[in-house]
Amino acid sequence: MRTSHRSECVINQTLEVLGDQWTLLVIRDIVFVDRRHFRELLTKSLEGIASNILADRLRKLVQQGIITKSDDPTHKQKAIYSLTEKGIALVPLLLEMAAWGDEYLPTSKLQGLARTLKEGGPELRAEFMNELRKAHLPASG
Fold this sequence. Notes:
Domain HTH hxlR-type: 9-109
Strand order of the largest sheet: 1-2
Keywords: DNA-binding, Transcription, Transcription regulation
Organism: Dyella agri
Shape: globular
Largest sheet: 2 strands, antiparallel
Strand content: 5-15%
Number of strands: 2
Protein name: Helix-turn-helix transcriptional regulator
Helix content: 55-70%
Radius of gyration: 16 Å
Number of helices: 7
Distance between the termini: 30 Å
């Protein structure tokens, strides 16, 4: 894991963690579509991520403490990826990005859960984040 940064700017440092083409899409699929296994993330992504890229991004997200990887109790050869509190804290950022795209990108339309969470306001967003905590954090389940 990289310990030095190009600058002390917090935006730069955040981009060094999240700013490539795939990382936020992997997090999006874990958060909003509950894809928690490698195969689901690989085959059901609309953007068609390559397996080596997915493996790399998952490894980096684990190293950064955004997700955890554990053995799936239902299948001994599968791993399950879960959000950490640090990962759940990205939900407002993802929702703001979706809202910005909905407003300023003419071909983009906010839909599904993202639209529901936007229209539901802060209370519904907080409730959603609490549901993620119950599903992903061992002490909350």
